[in-house]
Amino acid sequence: MIKILHRWLTMFGRFLILMGRTFSVPERFRMFWKQYVKEMEQLGINSIGIVLLISFFIGAVICIQMKLNIQSPWMPRWVSGYTTREIMLLEFSSSIMCLILAGKVGSNIASEIGTMRVTQQIDALDIMGVNSACYLILPKIMGMITIMPLLVIFSSALGIVGAYGTAYVGGIIVPDDLTLGLQHQFKSWFMWMSIIKSLFFAFIISAVPSYCGYTVEGGSVNVGKASTDAVVTSSVLILFSDVFLTQLLS
Amino acid sequence: MIEVKNLYKRFDDIEVLKDISTVFEDGKTNLIIGQSGSGKTVLMKNLVGLFDPTEGQILYDGRDFVKMSKKEKVHMRREMGMIFQSAALFDSLTVLENVMFPLDMFSTMNLRERQKRAMDCLDRVNLVGAEEKYPGEISGGMQKRVAIARAIALNPKYLFCDEPNSGLDPKTSLVIDELLHSITREFNMTTIINTHDMNSVMGIGENIIFIYEGHKEWQGVSGDIMGSTNKRLTDFIFASDLLKEMREAVTHNQK
């Protein structure tokens, strides 16, 4: 038990040291900007497709489930729309969507940086006098934090569109009832809460896999292991921090 | 000039480098040779600061690299160029972008000047025409030449090469050797090459350091090797039957 605790504390200490090196002034802002824009595209814009697809269908499925399992003559007509909105806004678009992105983006980051480590590209940067942590990791973290609120907004919006799809195309629910539910007691703070939570998750999704990749030793097997560790660790951290953030922000 | 004084490197209980003292001279092609696992790469990684020595001094023109602050080391590293065994080119950048990278990072030139400088470096290694290709699209020999072009882009004072000929055919190895040798002369750099390629040793070795089980066993020039009586050195250099016969023929002719 003490050994495991010691290992985790050592890892946490190394993570903090790496973050210390990462959050320093870039050598050239021109190069940082170039990398920042590239990472926003690679990690964020290229994830829009999967976010929209999943959000649309989850929105539709939640609406169908609510209508079929919760709605009853004893419930108000707006309950399906209301619960769909609350689930999408409070949990799916921030937390669950970030869990999905932890798989897609996290493995991408860990394997990219890990491969750079084992092929000595990071050593090459260090020998040139470049702060490799700042050059490689900072644009990823900043890019992810910048793009994440947009992904959350898109996800919420497409979830609602999915719910309307069940109403207009599937005929599961009356569109007016859905609209009533979506508008019922809407609190704009919930949207902000979702965005604030997602910013923390964006940091976890980008920083933890970066650490896993940056500290790889060995060859391709270890890069694969780092990629798996990155996804598992960032998913667990998202779930834990979701509990605290929800409690804190509610 | 790089001077190494009483250098030791230990990993836990294993002593990899033992009391290495030597001088790598300006404008010369300095070779570090030795069997696999003898400590050549560890020595080079100590020289460039990827490892910190357990004991000893590394003096770059009198400046102790070991005692420098992180900031001073970063500045010092801008005077170094390094060619890795695997070339270590950035996969996501084209050949031209790879060579331009150190210029983009550290020079004050404008874009046109940086491009011109990078093209000059590519011209120096005979790679004009490959500038738009990605590292994955070119051969191992070309990758090594791109790495050389990238290493010399900022006119470094010190050039380090970790087994630049590994994985290359003998003819391409000769091209790389000749290129490194002529660049060293042209820019009066202190070049240090880690190798166990005998063609390099005999062809371009102006100052050769033989490392055996972590200590300096022998130091000299390529011309001294034939007549050397150091058994460990001759066993290493003339390991194959062909080279043994060649040595016997040469010494027989000299008599």
Description:
The complex is a heterodimer of chains A (250) and B (255). Chain A is mainly α. Chain A has one domain. In chain A, 84% of the residues lie in helices and 0% in strands. Chain A is built from 9 helices and no strands. In chain A, helix 1 packs across helix 6, helix 2 runs parallel beside helix 6 and helix 4 packs antiparallel against helix 9. In chain B, 40% of the residues are buried. In chain B, helix 3 packs across helix 4, helix 5 packs parallel to helix 6 and helix 6 runs parallel beside helix 7. The longest helix of chain B is centred in the last third of the chain and has 18 residues. Chain B is globular, with a radius of gyration of 19 Å. Chain B has 10 helices and 10 strands. In chain B, strands 6-7-8-3-9-10 form a 6-stranded mixed beta sheet, sandwiched between helices. Chain B has a 4-stranded antiparallel beta sheet with strand order 2-1-4-5, with helices on one face. With 255 residues, chain B is of the alpha/beta class. Chain B has one domain: P-loop containing nucleotide triphosphate hydrolases (Rossmann fold, 3-Layer(aba) Sandwich), CATH 3.40.50. Classes of the chains: A mainly alpha (250), B alpha/beta (255). At the A-B interface, helix 5 of A face helix 2 and helix 3 of B.
Strand arrangement, major sheet of chain B: 6-7-8-3-9-10
- Cα(first) to Cα(last) distance of chain A is 35 Å
The beta-strand count of chain A equals 0
Specify the number of helices of chain A.
Answer: 9
Q: Within the CATH hierarchy, at the fold level, what is the topology of chain B?
A: Rossmann fold
Q: Which key terms come to mind for this protein?
A:
heterodimer; A: 250 residues; mainly alpha; 9 helices; elongated; B: 255 residues; alpha/beta; Rossmann fold; six-stranded mixed beta sheet; four-stranded antiparallel beta sheet; 24% strand
